[in-house]
Specification:
- It is built from four helices and seven strands, in the order βββαβαβαβαβ.
- The protein is α/β, with parallel strands linked by helices.
């Protein structure tokens, strides 16, 4: 399915150095879970539309993708790591044009009738808590007219 257009951006360049590379920040879009399938699509589309993108994801995921992008490693199921990721992002950009949460976790890939109730509880807690805590951390610095999008998925 085709993604719609993101809000129009106004170019206000700011150069930062991250991992020994200069990155120009204009209007920054943060993508939580930006290394997964949906997240990668959001990142690629945002770049096509002229956004600067910060990708927030697990350290192992970030090691494999987006080498020329502001990357912040953390575990979204850990509230304190999420708060630290938000503080780190604020050091690079005091406001966000948008925030997109595509973060999801599952304990196993099994049909629902075969999923143990404890595994379901962990999956539900991880996914809903990461959405709740990310909204609390990032909503305060999404700029006026900016967007905050929460995407849920499972397969």
């Amino acid at each position: 399915r085709e993604m719609g257009s993101l809000p129009a951006i106004a170019k206000t360049d700011k150069v930062i150095t991250h991992n020994k590379r200069n990155i120009i920040l204009r209007d920054l879009l943060a993508v939580l879970g930006g290394c997964g399938g949906i997240g990668r699509s959001v990142v690629e589309r945002a770049r096509e539309q002229g956004y600067d993108v910060a990708v927030l994801d697990l350290p192992a995921s970030l090691a494999l993708t987006f080498s020329n992008t502001l990357r912040i490693a953390f575990d979204a199921t850990q509230a304190e790591q999420l708060a630290e990721a938000a503080r780190t992002l604020r050091e690079h950009s005091p406001t966000l044009k948008g925030f997109v949460n595509t973060c999801a976790s599952r304990t196993q890939h099994v049909p629902a009738p075969e999923t143990a109730p404890d595994d379901w509880s962990v999956t539900l807690e991880d996914n809903l808590s990461s959405a709740f805590y990310s909204a609390r951390q990032f909503a305060p610095f999404v700029s006026p007219g900016g967007v905050m999008v929460m995407i849920g998925s499972g397969s």
